[in-house]
Design brief:
alpha/beta, Rossmann fold, formyl-coa transferase, domain 3, 13 strands, about 15% strand
Length: about 400
């Protein structure tokens, strides 16, 4: 599909979110976002998607680090945009007392403060937990870091791929005969942002009971480890080290990515006996279900190479659409391996409104991923496009602090 048609298609997905006017589930919650890059901004953005008033605090002049990251549209970073919608931007110089004093005033009116500095940085700025509690006993401090707020590595630098490496995620990803491979996206940053949202929501619920705020400590390494499936008990109980298996499933067979006659790839899984028997029938090879090598899931896993060779010989006789039609008819979960160009033209994406269109003040119309959670009564919606640096400084200081004459932008 040509680019202009893809953009047109994306725009069609945005009518529903923009026409909803009900407040989101976090309406009335105020969030200060002091974070950079992905995990922290993503956490704060999701809180904003749910209706919170999220204020992104950035240094004057250059703003958050990612504003310099390509690709750009009209000089504005797409990287920054996809992690910062539904926020307003306030520019404060936190290196000096005037900016720190204004941050202190904002903290007094906030419900949540999100930060992902190296542990100890907030304390050096003069905003340790004891200070924050004195300013605002109801404040929730959501702290995102590489290794957590404690331990020997706490102050060491860490990014997503470092957590992938240290956690073993990289070693269990990729071809069995190839090198360890990072995921195609920053999966640990995203998951850490999600855990931070979950922790923040839990702390808000606890505050509703107790009236007191608390810290929420979320780490990239912990988040990465949470996705290791059975690897840790396998290692400690069975002495078995999980490693790479390519696209082959670890727990059932056949379940892999198979080639087709027209050069495409289709991933499918035959989970359990009824599905495997149905697959054998579809392959016109019902005898496979009686073969001792394939009689149950355990033996199929043991002889996965032989089984997949037979399945591959069959899939290579079919075009992808025909194969998918057969698999869907017999009830097997399956999908063509799509490129992003396929994804943005997918009818299912249109049906779910999964691409939203925002109007950026400089970049114009920009499509981006929509909302992964759909509330029936208090839906997510696009209220603010990603802000320009300092775009809302005067507006936010006036609203939050109620003082039109406040010194709003020290530098």
């Amino acid at each position: 599909m040509p680019v202009h048609e893809q953009r047109s298609f994306a725009m069609q997905q945005t009518d529903r979110p923009h026409t909803l006017t009900q407040p989101g589930p976090l309406d009335g919650i105020r969030v200060l976002d002091l974070s950079r890059f992905i995990a922290g901004p993503y956490c704060a953005m999701l809180l904003g998607d749910m209706g919170a008033d999220v204020v992104k605090v950035e240094p004057p002049g250059r703003g958050e680090n990612s504003r310099a990251f390509a690709p750009f549209v009209q000089g504005e970073s797409l990287y920054t945009m996809v992690f910062n919608r539904n926020k307003r931007s306030v520019a404060l110089d936190l290196r000096g007392d005037p900016g720190k004093n204004q941050l202190r005033d904002l903290i007094a009116h906030a419900d949540v403060l999100v930060e992902n500095y190296v542990p100890g940085t907030v304390e050096k700025m003069g905003f340790g937990w004891d200070v924050l509690q004195a300013i605002n006993p109801r404040l929730i401090l959501t702290r995102i870091s590489g290794f957590g707020q404690s331990g020997a590595r706490a102050t060491k630098p860490c990014f997503d791929v470092i957590a992938q490496s240290m956690s073993g995620l990289m070693d269990i990803t990729g071809d069995p005969d190839g090198k360890p491979t990072m995921a195609g996206t920053y999966v640990v940053d995203y998951s850490t942002g999600l855990y931070a949202v979950i922790g923040t929501l839990g702390a808000l619920q606890a505050r509703a009971r107790t009236g007191r705020g608390q810290t929420v400590d979320v780490a990239l390494l912990d988040s990465a480890m949470s996705m290791l499936m059975t690897a840790i008990p396998e290692q400690l109980l069975l002495g078995r080290t999980m490693t790479r298996r390519g696209n082959r499933d670890r727990y059932t067979a056949p379940a892999n990515t198979f080639p087709t006659r027209d050069g495409a790839w289709v991933h499918f899984a035959a989970v359990g006996e009824p599905m495997f028997h149905a697959l054998a029938e579809a392959m016109d090879a019902p005898q496979l279900a009686q073969d001792p090598r394939f009689q149950d899931n355990g033996t199929r896993l043991e002889h996965a190479d032989a089984l997949e060779a037979l399945v591959t010989a069959w899939t290579c006789t079919l075009d992808a659409d025909d194969l998918i039609g057969i698999l869907q008819q017999i009830g097997l979960p399956c999908a063509r391996v799509a490129r992003i160009s396929d994804l943005v033209a997918d009818e299912q994406i249109a049906a779910r409104g999964s691409i939203v269109q925002m109007q950026h003040p400089k970049a114009g119309s920009v499509p981006m991923q929509g909302f992964a959670v759909h509330f029936a009564e208090s839906p997510m919606r696009l209220r603010h496009p990603p802000p320009l640096l300092g775009q809302h400084t005067e507006e936010v200081l006036a609203e939050w602090l109620g003082n039109e004459d406040h010194d709003r932008n020290p530098s």
